[in-house]
Amino acid sequence: MKKFFQGLKRDVAFKTTAGPGHRLTEDTRSQQAAAAAAKQTSACAKPRDVPSEEAQMAAAAALARMEKKQQKSSVVSSQEVIRNKVKKELMAETMAAKPDSETFGEEISKATCQQNSKLFSVSGVYFICPLTGASLKKNDREQHVKEAILMKFSEEPVEAAVMMIQTFNKDRDKVKSGTEIIAKYIDNICNNPNEEKYRKIKLQNKVFQEKVSCLEGAHEFISAVGFERKTLPVPDQENEEDFYVLSDDVLGKLEELKLHKEKLLRGEPVRAKLDRQLRIFKPSPRAASFELPDDFYNLTAEEIKREQQMRTEAVERSMMLRTKAMREKDEQREMKKYNYTLLRIRLPDEYILQGTFYAREKVSALYEFVRETLQNEWQPFELLLPGGMKLLDDSTAFNECGLVPAALLTFVWDAAIQADIEAAGAQGQGSALKDELLSNVQLLN
C-alpha cells in the first residue's frame, strides 16, 4: 500500500513539471509558442505610471503637427502628380501632331540656340514687300504678297488681276500660253468691233478650259476688263451654256482695252525683294568673325540629320589623296548648301560695311551696293578678296568665287584716279561713306 501511494505522488510530480501529455501524431508547435509568449508577457508585465498632464499636452501638440505636415505633403504631392501628367499628355499630343521632320528640326534649332550663346552677326534673312513696304521673314513673304495683291482689287482691279496671274501661277509656260490666248480674245474684239461672235467667250470651250480657266486670276482679269458672265441659249441645242460677254460700254473704250492687254503681256511676278539690311560698324578686330542663323543655310530636316555623317566623311576624305577635280567637285557641292551670304567690306578708315545677298547673285550687285553708300559715287574703286586678289569679274556669282556663306573684303580706291586727285592738290576726305550712314554707326558684337 505504501508503495502504491508513493507511485501516485511520482506521477503527479511528473505531470506538474512536464505539462499535459500529447499524442505522438498531434502537432504541438503552436501551443508551445503560445505558452512561451504568455509566459514572457506575464514575466515582463509591470504596472505603468500614468503620464503627467504636461506630458499629455506636449504629446497632443506634436501629434497635431505631424498630422498637419502629412496632410500638406499629401496635397502638394497629389497636385504635382496631376500637373506632370497633364504636361506629359500635352507634350505627347503636340509631338504627335507634328511630322517627324519638323520635330527633329525644332530639336536641332533649340540645341543650336542653346549652344550659340553669342549674338548672331545678323538676326536673319528679311524681305521687303514691294506693295506694302513691310519687312518680312523668309517664311512669311509669299503669304503677305498674296494678301497685298488681293487687297489691291478694290483700287485697281485690272492691275491686281495681272499681278495675280503672274504671281500665283508658278508654271511660266502655262502663264505665257494662257495670257496669249486672252490677248487674242482682245485683239479679235479690237480688230472686229462689229462682230458679235468675238465679244463672247464660251466657258466650256476646250481651249479656254485647258489654257485659260486653269490659271489663277484669269477669271478676275476677264471680269475686270469689262466682260460679264451670262447664261445664253446655244443655236441648235436645247441646253443653255455659260459665256463671258463684253459689256456694250467697253466697245467705246477699245484703246483702254488694248492698254489692259499690254499690261497683261508685260506683267511680271510680284516678288518680295531681299532686304540688304545695310549696317555700318565701327572698326573692330572681330570683322572676320561670323555667327549666322539658320536662314542662311539651304538644308532640309533630312539633310540636317546627315550633316554629322557628312562631316565624318569629310574628315576621312581629307586624309586621302584626291585629284584637283575631286576637290573642286566637293567644293561646288558644299557651296550649293547656301541660299544667302553675308558680306562685309572694310573701308580705308577701318569702318565696316555689311549687307545680305543671294548666294547666286553676281559680283556686280556688290559693287552697286557699295557704290550707293559712297560720298563720291563717281570715283572708281576695287574690292579685294580675303587672300588679297582683286575681285574683277562682275558676272561671277558669289558662290562661284567662294564668298559664301560669309566673307570679309577690303575696299581700295582705284590707284591711278586716286593719284590724280592727290596730284591736283585736293584735300583728302574724312570717311568715304555718306554722312547719313555715319549717323547710324553700330558696334560689332
Describe this protein's structure.
With 445 residues, the protein is α+β, with helices and mostly antiparallel strands. The protein has 15 helices and eleven strands. The protein has helices at 2-18, 29-44, 53-97, 100-115, 141-151, 157-168, 172-191, 206-212, 218-224, 254-266, 301-318, 324-335, 363-371, 415-423, 435-438, and strands spanning 126-128, 135-137, 200-202, 227-233, 240-246, 273-274, 279-281, 340-346, 352-358, 381-384, 406-413. Helix 4 (100-115) crosses helix 11, helix 5 packs antiparallel against helix 6 and helix 7 packs antiparallel against helix 10 (254-266). Mean pLDDT is 78; it is low at 41-48, 72-79 and 113-118.
List keywords for this structure.
alpha+beta; flat; 12% strand; 445 residues
Task: Please outline the helices and strands.
Blueprint: H1 2-18, H2 29-44, H3 53-97, H4 100-115, E1 126-128, E2 135-137, H5 141-151, H6 157-168, H7 172-191, E3 200-202, H8 206-212, H9 218-224, E4 227-233, E5 240-246, H10 254-266, E6 273-274, E7 279-281, H11 301-318, H12 324-335, E8 340-346, E9 352-358, H13 363-371, E10 381-384, E11 406-413, H14 415-423, H15 435-438
Parallel strand pairs: 8-11
Antiparallel strand pairs: 1-2, 1-6, 3-5, 4-5, 7-9, 8-9, 10-11
